[in-house]
């Protein structure tokens, strides 16, 4: 998110993820790689509903798994969801994904992931899985009124950041409003920021942001934190952190970028305004696991439980990305997971005699 440093940096909107930057492709003129299916209509013509591997989710984890599975000739089907591209679609500058020294816009990065997955023959459908049956193979998944069947499944449905639900909060996302200090803290060097929340996430984000910001104001609607004692002590002892107790954010202020917040005292009802250059919303995430709960283990926070890296209690069903990982929550770690899940799925299919023996160069 560069809006603080790059006035006018607006969130791009990519009506269709299909159109890739031809110029980009031309630099690889020598390459014999076919054009992505979505640009030559192959995706529209590809009506397969059966595959050796069905991937659920088209964020960094799902699309990386698709790239690896496609290059292993597994012809994956990606049921990508109604929000194709995942969480990075709601942010602007991504500066910490390797390979882009000048950073890249979140949606643009996801467009490249998608083009790469389609280039190697992935079929991608932008619908949500509403129901699954993992009682036997092929596993069955229903999405958009269609039944898909997979000899193996990779679940990469991620998690959704919880927001305050204020209009200006949504309008200024990527322009001072963020849900990720690891991702965006760097943009607030020498600036003042506010963090809303009272759990470990908020305390952790506030403490992390002291590395960049001059002042960090923690806004919490109650008079005591929910986070662990050690995180509370660390935050409360930090000279750069101040706390507004019994304080609710009722609006986010600013034309093009965040300039402040309007606050309401939850005891007196009094409203005040506080100047700030950024607002970090740290009120938690909701893992997208509802459709899998009858089949896969979830932990107390609702995240999927993995076994042996990417496995689950059902042989042939694998997991990747933020849908299980609530520790790192980064695009590169999710992509790494996607790669691992595809390799594990391929080896499992091979062991079942479903996929031909992988050659050393498969990956
Ligand atoms: C505002 C913001 C800014 C961020 N900035 C950065 C950054 O700068 N750098 C960084 O490394 N990370 C950043 N992150 C974190 C990063 O976006 C995530 O860690 C990463 O996207 C996780 O990837 P994922 O593929 O596991 O899940 P997600 O990106 O959450 O993707 C999940 C996918 O699953 C789909 N899905 C969900 N339910 C279903 C269903 N039932 N059926 C089918 N599909 C479904 C969704 O539509 C989506 O396509 C940011 C996150 C946010 C919210």
Provide a short characterization of the protein structure.
The protein is α/β, with parallel strands linked by helices. It has helices at residues 22-26, 37-40, 42-45, 60-71, 106-119, 167-171, 181-184, 200-209, 229-237, 331-351, and strands spanning 50-56, 77-79, 93-94, 104-105, 123-125, 129-133, 139-143, 146-155, 159-161, 177-178, 192-196, 215-219, 241-244, 247-253, 260-265, 271-275, 278-281, 285-287, 317-319. The chain folds into 2 domains: 22-160 and 286-351, FAD/NAD(P)-binding domain (3-Layer(bba) Sandwich); 163-281, FAD/NAD(P)-binding domain (3-Layer(bba) Sandwich), CATH 3.50.50.
CATH domain topology of the largest domain: FAD/NAD(P)-binding domain
Mean pLDDT: 88
Number of domains: 2
Strand runs, count: 19
Shape: elongated
Hey, roughly how much beta strand do the residues contain? 15-25%
Number of helices: 10
Give the proportion of residues in helices: 10-25%
Distance between the termini: 33 Å
Q: Give the CATH superfamily of the largest domain.
A: FAD/NAD(P)-binding domain
Architecture of the largest domain in CATH? 3-Layer(bba) Sandwich
Give the SSE string: HHHEHEEEHEEEEEHEHEHEHEEEEEEEH
Label the structural class. Answer: alpha/beta
Please tell me about this protein's structure.
By secondary structure, the protein is α/β, with parallel strands linked by helices. The chain has two domains: 22-160 and 286-351, 3-Layer(bba) Sandwich (FAD/NAD(P)-binding domain); 163-281, FAD/NAD(P)-binding domain. 24% of the residues lie in helices and 23% in strands. It contains ten helices and 19 strands. It has helices at residues 22-26, 37-40, 42-45, 60-71, 106-119, 167-171, 181-184, 200-209, 229-237, 331-351; strands spanning 50-56, 77-79, 93-94, 104-105, 123-125, 129-133, 139-143, 146-155, 159-161, 177-178, 192-196, 215-219, 241-244, 247-253, 260-265, 271-275, 278-281, 285-287, 317-319. The strands form five sheets. Strands 1, 2, 5, 6, 7, 8 and 19 form a seven-stranded mixed beta sheet that branches. The relative contact order is 0.17. Bound molecules: flavin-adenine dinucleotide. Flavin-adenine dinucleotide is lined by residues 56-62, 79-81, 83-88, 90-91, 94, 96-97, 128-129, 156-159, 161, 178-180, 183, 288, 291, 321-323, 329-332, 334.
